[in-house]
Amino acid sequence: MTSHSASAGSGRFPAGRAAFPHRDLTGIGHLQRHEILYLLDQAEQWVALNRQRSKHTDLLAGLTIINAFFENSTRTLLSFEIAGKRLGADVVNMHAATSSVKKGETLIDTAITLNAMRADAIVIRHGSSGATGLIADKVDCPVLNAGDGSHEHPTQGLLDALTLRHALAERGEGAEDFTGLKIVICGDILHSRVARSNILCLTAMGANVRVCAPPALMPAGVEAMGVEVFHRFDDALDGAEVVMMLRLQSERMSGQFVPSAREYRHLYGLTAKRLAIAAPGALVMHPGPMNRGVEIDSEVADLAGRSLITRQVEMGVAIRMACLDILTREARGVEGWTA
């Protein structure tokens, strides 16, 4: 297994580090379209590896990756841990609940401590927007944002794009990007870092993105991100080819944003009847964890051939392997990536 896909040196992308010139991955907003495509292309080799019986390579042997999670996580933490281990790295998980943060240590001091351990990459998940960028400025190794407050969750946006690319290719609708693809993102847009990263990623790839939420859960000025805003779910679904549902993030809410879970489902829940309003064969996505019977019914979440929810989990490992590979190339002395 090599560290570069066939496209890396074929002229499809700039040569060497110019293909992805960033030390860190703290968000998608600053990435160019070709940089997003490069990350997706690089993930393809890891999709293939992960589908084999032997899923291990020594590409990152001798490197240490620290997963520093200041927020609870199941999918993202496990995905990054599996990604690092399948690449051959030594992976250490740090949970804030058992760290010195509970004793009053500041985020900066924690970052300085992690840096002193000479990690080769640090994956950060934090409840405050901008925390990963703050840490990136204080450490000497690459930093990957695994979710910071309501700001961004870049690898989720990337894995969703990779999932869509595979699903469309299987239908014979594969293309380099998503030009003209009609995608609805519905739910708690206001508090969702997943929504923000997906909007940035999907619009950069040419998709027509619609966002739908109750007025209280729609960010002011979101139109500036190049999306079409809806408050009636049925209207947003008309002709949609992909429907991405989001959960209500009650942990980020202070006050009453929706009358009740029952009322929310009535207005914004994805049921089989409501899915029928979308384009024939419309694909269904959800980043998890799902609140079944609230934002999505089980009948839809488990819909064979159309629900991509478990596929999203699979693609998450591959895209995180790609990110860890690319961001550690300078440390590994990969030709074209060293200063």
Work out the radius of gyration.
20 Å
What shape does the CA trace take? globular
Helical residue percent? 25-40%
Number of helices: 12
How many strands, which pairing sense, and closed or not: the largest β-sheet? 5 strands, parallel
- In what range is the share of β-strand residues? 5-15%
Q: What's the count of strands?
A: 9
Structural class: alpha/beta
Unreliable segments (pLDDT under 50, ≥5 consecutive)? 1-9, 251-255
Average pLDDT over all residues: 91
Distance, first to last CA: 25 Å
Give the strand line-up of the largest sheet: 7-6-5-8-9
What is the string of SSEs from the N terminus onward? HEHEHEHEHEHEEHEHHEHHH
Q: Could you explain the architecture of this structure?
A:
With 339 residues, the protein is of the alpha/beta class. It has twelve helices and nine strands. It has helices at 33-50, 75-86, 107-116, 131-136, 154-170, 193-204, 233-237, 261-268, 272-275, 298-301, 309-327, 329-332; strands at 64-69, 90-95, 121-126, 143-148, 182-186, 208-212, 228-230, 242-245, 283-285. The strands form two sheets. It has a five-stranded parallel β-sheet. It has a four-stranded parallel β-sheet with strand order 2-1-3-4. The protein starts with 32 loop residues before the first helix and ends in a 7-residue tail after the last helix.
Task: Describe the secondary structure blueprint for this structure.
Blueprint: H1 33-50, E1 64-69, H2 75-86, E2 90-95, H3 107-116, E3 121-126, H4 131-136, E4 143-148, H5 154-170, E5 182-186, H6 193-204, E6 208-212, E7 228-230, H7 233-237, E8 242-245, H8 261-268, H9 272-275, E9 283-285, H10 298-301, H11 309-327, H12 329-332
Parallel strand pairs: 1-2, 1-3, 3-4, 5-6, 5-8, 6-7, 8-9
Helix pairs in contact: 1-5, 1-11, 2-11, 5-6, 5-11
